[in-house]
Amino acid sequence: MGIRKLGYVGLNVTDVDAWTDLLWRTLGVGVTDAKSGTETIALAEMDEFKYRVALYPSGVDSPREIGWVVDTPAELDRLTHRLTAAGYTVADGTDDERDLRGATHLRWFTDPAGFRVELAIGETKVRVAADRPAGGPGITGLGHLVLATPHLTELRHLYETVLEFRLTDYRSPGLFFFRCNTTHHSIALGTADTASIHHLEFEHATIDDVGRAHDRAHANNVPVSISLGRHMNDKAISFYVKNPSGFHLEIGCGGITVDDDWVPHDFGQASVWGHRHTDTNPFAVKDS
């Protein structure tokens, strides 16, 4: 398979300082500034690589790009051909964009929901941010994202048929989980009236790391938008906070891996326990 993993997410944000404060004080994520052309972008460093989340100062809060890491130039060309054959216009990224991402090759297209999707080769190990809070390894990387969209059928076709993601499982009437490696899922797609990111998941090493982040969230008065719980499908233990752009960050650990013998199925109940929502759950099963 050509796509190896979720590499990074870029966000247009109206309050970079609030994001930086949340990332550092509560989640232990260092943020550094980088220049790209005339822009100054805040880069959130979660592991040994250059960054996983880029924050672009903006007058609006909105997704800017979703970046997938591809194995080889040959696979990038093959996926480009598949996208072109499916009617997508694929363009090369600029030199500045490629340099910012630490990539050797970069191409992008616009998906049916209007999101810019990037395919990149190469990652640069240049972690420079300050050390994390004491008490454990903490965050280990960017786990997955969940998109809410009125174009569910088209997005499913893009990821499952064109980009060759595999369906792991689903929950009726319209929430689907896809993988591009052995991790249970790297992306999930759900139905909504407006296209948006429902949440990004920040992967942690241990339940103690999740617990410490939970304590820091309460100490720093960060709104916990979905309480601590364990998911039914991937078995991860997590909680969610509302970020300054208005969507959720999931703080989790312990998700299962799957192999080629895995059979997609409807996993029914959303969580084994916990995960109480402070607001309406857009993916809740409606009573008939």
UniProtKB/TrEMBL annotation:
Residues forming coiled coils: none
Keyword Metal-binding appears in the UniProt entry: yes
Cofactor: Fe(2+)
InterPro entries: Fosfomycin_Res_Enzymes (IPR051332), Glyas_Bleomycin-R_OHBP_Dase (IPR029068), Glyas_Fos-R_dOase_dom (IPR004360), VOC_core (IPR037523), Xdiol_ring_cleave_dOase_1/2 (IPR000486)
Short name of any one Pfam family annotated for the protein: Glyoxalase
Record's keyword terms, sorted: Aromatic hydrocarbons catabolism, Dioxygenase, Iron, Metal-binding, Oxidoreductase
CDD domains: BphC1-RGP6_N_like (cd07252)
One GO MF term attached to the UniProt entry: ferrous iron binding
Occurrences of domain VOC (ranges): 5-122, 141-254
SUPFAM superfamilies (alphabetical): Glyoxalase/Bleomycin resistance protein/Dihydroxybiphenyl dioxygenase
Entry keyword Iron: yes
Transmembrane annotation, as ranges: none
Family, per entry: Belongs to the extradiol ring-cleavage dioxygenase family.
Protein name: 3,4-dihydroxy-9,10-secoandrosta-1,3,5(10)-triene-9,17-dione 4,5-dioxygenase
